[in-house]
Amino acid sequence: MGTVLLELLERKESAKKTRKNGYVPAVIYGRGFENGKPVKIEASKLAKALKGQGATPRFSAMVNKEETEVLVKEVQKDAITGQILHVDMQALTGDEHVRVKVPVILTGREALERNNLILETYISEVEISGPANILPESLSIDVSNMNAGDTITVRNIKLTVTDVRIHTAEDEVLAVVSVPKQARQAGEDSDENDEGSQAAE
CA separation (Å) from 137 to 6, 72, 90, 142? Predict the structure, then answer.
C-alpha cells in the first residue's frame, strides 16, 4: 500500500467552489467506481503527497470510510501558477494488473564521491507492470562499486518478484559514472606540466 493516507471526500459542489474552499476536485474510477465518483482532496495535503513522487503516484486513501490503494492517472495544473486544478485516480484491487512509472533510486553515491566520482543522471524512472499488490513503489541499483566511464542501464535493475515486468528498453541509459570537470581539468593540467618538464630536460 502507499505510504501516504489521503482522505477522499464526496463532492457535490462545482469544481470552482471546491477549489475556492481549499480543496482539489477529483474523480476516482475503477472497480466499485465504474461510473466515476466525484471526490475532493484537501489541496495542501495533496500537494505535499505528490511532492517527490514519480509520474504515476500511488497512495492509500480513505474512500467511503474504507482504505483503498489509488493510482493517480492524471494531474491537471494551471500553466501559470502551477496550482493543481483536477486529479483523475484509479482505485486498485490486489490482483489487478496495472502499468505505472516508478522512480529508480541509485544507492552508493557516497562511495563514488569518496573516489572523486559523480553520477550524470539521464533517466530517473522506468515503466513497469504487474499485480497492484506486489508492484514496488521504487527500484534501486547499487552503484558503489562502479568506476569512471561505467554506464548504468535498465539492464542493471534486479527485480525481486517474478510477476513484475519492466517495459523500458534494457539498453536505456539511466546514468553514467564520470570524473568531475574540475578534477578532469586538474589532471589535464598536471599532464601538460609533466610534458613541459620532460621537454625542458
Answer: 17, 13, 16, 17
Q: Which residues contact residue 147 at a Cβ distance below 8 angstroms, ignoring those fewer than 6 apart?
A: 117, 177
Task: Phi first, then psi: give them for residue 53, nearest 5 degrees.
Answer: -85, 165
CB contact at 8 A, 84 and 76: yes
Domain CATH code at residue 182: 2.170.120.20
Tell me, yes or no, whether 197 lies in a domain: no
Q: Are 57 and 120 spatial neighbours (Cβ–Cβ below 8 Å)?
A: no
Domain range for 42 is: 5-92
**Residues 105 and 185 grouped into a single domain:** yes
pLDDT tens readout for residues 129-175 = 998 888 888 899 999 999 999 999 999 999 988 899 999 999 999 99
Reading the block at residue 182, the C-alpha cell is 574540475
